[in-house]
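Hi C.,

You asked whether I'd gotten around to modeling the 162-residue construct. I have! Everything is below, sequence then structure, no commentary in between.
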Amino acid sequence: MSRKVMSKVELEERREELIAAHKADTRRNQKTPTLTKKERKYLGIGRDEGRASVKHLRMNSKKVNLLTSLIRGKSLREALAILEYSPNAAAQPLIKLLNSATANAVNNNGLDPELLYVAEVNATEGPTMKRIRPRAKGAASWILKRSSHVTVVLRESEEEEA
């Protein structure tokens, strides 16, 4: 069951409606139908942000979410400082991810790196590798090696914060 891709004429007719629906705050279970990559490019959606993600990070998403909650909503410089001095093992992959999102925002969308802030960051559960550890009396127990998917979105703030 494939979705019908809108033509450029349809996109022009519904431009304001589609952009307003995309920017509206909605609950996760009430999301509007997603636009294809070509439709988003034609409408200019996503040109005001830098996005980066890492898949299959070999770290529990609960441990990564401890740090993501610390940097959410902070300026880019402040978020990098928090992560740099954090003893948590998830800090290094998050620093690399923030730097990648910054490069995407600056090089692809021409945003000012001084005005960027962490708009969205989340870590969701990835696939779990299951291993077996032998135990006493011929028994066995599971070892669950969890992984996570982390996504970061950077946007420009309206005014510069001093």
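If it helps when you're writing up: DSSP finds six helices and five strands in the chain.

Thanks,
B.
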